[in-house]
Amino acid sequence: MAVVGPPHEAAGEAEGSPEPPRRAPAIRPFLLTTGRVSADGGTLPMPVETQIVSTSAGLLALHSLTFERHDIVAACRRPQSVAELAAELRLHLNVVRVLAEDLRTAGHLAVHRPNAAIAQDLSVLRRVIDGLRAVPDSRDTLRDTS
């Protein structure tokens, strides 16, 4: 049985090691939202297509916001969906939903939820599909219409 030195040496962190210190592990999403899965615990989460944009009050308070809240308000200078924001900031979708709702409550973000009746209207979906098919591809030919 081999004897191993102190734990820091076993991990490759001995004195004079040429290896740079490792990055700290990512913070778990539930820590960012203090364990909440929705802003007030009772409402349904924001749909991923919900558009959010910074308010003038949010932009004025930007210097006092920290970490993810600062990043969300700064990124929302232009309107974008919750899904786009989560992808851009590389945050979990539910983290963005909870923090965006908190920021809306504080007056830092304006939230524009989609009209559920329109979002579920099949004629709208059909028009979107037809519009996408009408967009020429890189060879300037229309997509298959079948």
Helices and strands, with pairings:
Elements: H1 7-10, H2 29-32, E1 51-54, H3 56-60, H4 67-75, E2 80-81, H5 82-89, H6 93-105, E3 109-112, H7 116-119, H8 122-133
Antiparallel strand pairs: 1-2, 1-3
List keywords for this structure.
single chain; 146 residues; mainly alpha; three-stranded antiparallel sheet; 8 helices; globular
Low-confidence stretches: 1-13
Question: What's the SSE pattern?
Answer: HHEHHEHHEHH
Q: Work out the helix count.
A: 8
Q: What composes the largest sheet?
A: 3 strands, antiparallel
> What's the alpha carbon Rg, rounded to whole Å?
23 Å
Assign an overall shape.
globular
Number of strands: 3
Bin the strand percentage: 5-15%
The mean pLDDT is: 75
Residues in helix, %? 40-55%
Structural class: mainly alpha
Oligomer: single chain
Query: What is the CA-CA span between the terminal residues?
Result: 69 Å
Q: Strand sequence of the main sheet, in spatial order? A: 2-1-3
Describe the 3D structure:
There is one protein chain. By secondary structure, the chain is mainly alpha-helical. The protein is built from 8 helices and 3 strands, in the order ααβααβααβαα. A 3-stranded antiparallel β-sheet has the order 2-1-3. The protein is globular, with a radius of gyration of 23 Å. The termini are far apart.
Summarize this entry quickly.
It is built from 8 helices and 3 strands; from the N terminus they run H-H-E-H-H-E-H-H-E-H-H. It has helices spanning 7-10, 29-32, 56-60, 67-75, 82-89, 93-105, 116-119, 122-133, and strands at 51-54, 80-81, 109-112.
